[in-house]
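Materials and Methods. Structural model of Ferredoxin. The 66-residue sequence of Ferredoxin from Nocardiopsis dassonvillei was retrieved and submitted for structure prediction as follows.
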Amino acid sequence: MRVTVDQDWCCGAGQCVLLAPEVFDQREEDGIVELLTERPPENLYPAVREAGQVCPTGAIHVDEEA
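The predicted structure was written out as tokens:
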């Protein structure tokens, strides 16, 4: 799995951070998503998938085959 984020699309909702804080964080100044690791460990796959699904702007991209 490989994760990427588009900070230009992020609205700062923070659902990703709540679901997978080991993978996502938010910038202090504006709440925009920051990716902590683009290749999360397998045990975090379910949370990362859910974060991608609930992102209101589609800023999180999960490539299952990478």
